[in-house]
Amino acid sequence: MSFLASTRAMFELALGEILWARRTIFLALLAVGPVLLALATRAALAGGTAVVRVNGASVDSGTVFNVAIWTLYLRFIVPALGVFYGTSLIADEVEEKTITYLFTRPIRRGAVVLGKYLAYLVYVVATVLPSVAILFVLMVPFGGMGRLYLTLVKDLGVIAIGLAAYGALFLFAGVVLRRPLVAGLVFAFGWEQIALVMPGYLRYLTIAFYLQSLAPRAIPVEETFSTLQALNTDVPPAAASVLVLAAVTVVTLLLAMRTVEQREYVLEQ
C-alpha cells in the first residue's frame, strides 16, 4: 500500500476507535459544558442588556462570549483535549500491548501515527467548533451577530490551530515518555500558566502565548486585567504566531512519526 492509502486506512480505523472510546464522554462534557453555561448566563442577561458587572463596569453578552473563548476554550478545553487524546494515540496501544498488531499490517509505521493524528484532529474539531458556534448564537444578540461574525470565524480558526498544535505536541510526548499524561498535564496546566506571567522569554516556550496573540481582547475593565496586559506587551504579530504554531505542529508530528519508525517495541508479558 502507498503511504497515502495506508494513512487513509489507519485514519478510518482510528476514527472508529475514537468514537467508541471512553474518552468520548469526556469530550462531550467539555463541548456541552460551555453551552449550558451560556444558557444560564443568557438567562441573566435580559434581552442582551448587561446586568453583569465587574469592578462597577457593565459587561454585555458579546464581551462575555469573547472572555469565554479565552478562559474556557483556549486556556482549558483545547489543551485538555490535546493532553488526553494526543498522549493516548500511541501510548494506549503500547500499554494495552496492541501496538504490534498494527505494525504487522503491510503499512509504514509513520502512516499509523499520521492516520491516528488526523482522526484525532477531525474528531475534536468537528465536536468543539460547533460548540463554539452554538455559544456564539446563545451569547451574542441577534443585532450584533453581523458585527462580530468575523470575530467568530477568527475564533474558530484559532481554536482549530490550538487543537492541532497541542495534539501534535502531546502525541510526540506519548511516543517518547513513559508517563505522558502526567507530563502533559504539568506542561499545560502548570508550566504554561506560570510561564505566561513570568518576566523574560519563558512565555515563548509555551503554546498558549502564541494562541493569546490570536485571541480576542474585548475586555472592558482595564483595572481588572491591567497587570496581565502589562506583562504581555511583547505579543508577537499574528502572522508570526501562526507560523510558530504551524512549525510546532509539523515538527513534533514528524518527530513522532520518525521515532515510531525507528523504535523497537518489545512488550513485557
Report on this model:
This protein has 269 residues and is mainly alpha-helical. It has one domain (3-45, 52-262). Helix content is 74%, strand content 2%. It has 11 helices and 2 strands. It has a two-stranded antiparallel ribbon. A hairpin with a 2-residue loop joins strand 1 (52-54) and strand 2. Mean pLDDT is 82; it is low at 218-231.
| Ends apart, CA distance between termini | 31 Å
Average pLDDT value? 82
Q: What is the spatial order of strands in the main beta sheet?
A: 1-2
Count of DSSP helices? 11
CA-atom Rg in angstroms: 20 Å
The total beta strand count reads 2
Helix content: over 70%
From N to C, what is the helix and strand string? HHEEHHHHHHHHH
**Share in β-strands:** under 5%
Instruction: Outline the low-pLDDT stretches.
Output: 218-231
Total separate domains: 1
> Which structural class do the helices and strands define?
mainly alpha
Compact overview of the structure:
The chain is mostly helical and 269 residues long. The chain has eleven helices and two strands.
